[in-house]
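Below is the record:
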Amino acid sequence: MAIPESHLDTWAKQGSVTQSSTTYATIKGALEATSANYAAKNFEVFLQGSYGNDTNIYAESDVDVVIRLDSIFHYNLDDLTPTEKAAFESAHSGGAAYSYASFKSDVKGALGSKFGSDVKDSKNAVKVKANGSRRNADVLVATEFRQYQNFFSISNQRYMAGVCFFTSAGNRIVNYPKQHSVNCTAKHQASNSWFKPMIRIYKNARGKLVNDGAIDQTTAPSYFIEGLLYNVPNYLFTGTYGDAFVASFKWILQADRSKFVTVNEQYPLLGDSAVTWPAANCNLFLDTLAKLWNNW
């Protein structure tokens, strides 16, 4: 028996945004305080994740915030010629006086001044614990990242801009949240506003699978569910929600998923890196999702 359309209609609806908006405003205010040690430097604070992309569901609580320092940047020169690399090194011969480690320490200090003991460090982000009407928040402390495509001079260069951060183990992770957001919006518009409701349906189904013990919380993160559906052709998102679910799911099962890309289109969706989805986890999610649909 299929999941009833009335249930899918409920799952498709966006979760509450009032508390998350207030939480973001509070976190942003603390990060942009004039008393912060980095206040005079060039940085930007913005949302990422489900709330930033309007794909949040009612069960979600964490607000994902990025603070990106642009006064320094990390980079990759692999696509440059030897001549271009030499030009880059000549143009950027001076070392940065302010490091990522100092920036992260100063961000924790700014958050601590506002939220006190509610601020905790984690592997990838600085966590601000929920308190009163404020939701949990994960603050990703990052610098600008540049994937260079060419470099001839400061006035003649081309690169893909992203963010990078370092885990507690010192591993660098690069991602492209703004490209992710832009592509999500473009896909939503191109699919006649079906894309984001379908993401919410799949995410709510994931939540039920977790609650039922079929998978755990780490099997199918929201980021990868968005990536999964990003690869589905727009013409399949039509009819009823049930029609669109069946059509998209069948297409995913039959497609060559090794060719799927993340929403930012910078990485394959499936893989073993820090920014890709282990294929075994994707397969488990699809297998349990089929059982959920068939045995409702």
User: Anything to note?
Assistant: The first strand starts at residue 43 and ends at 48.
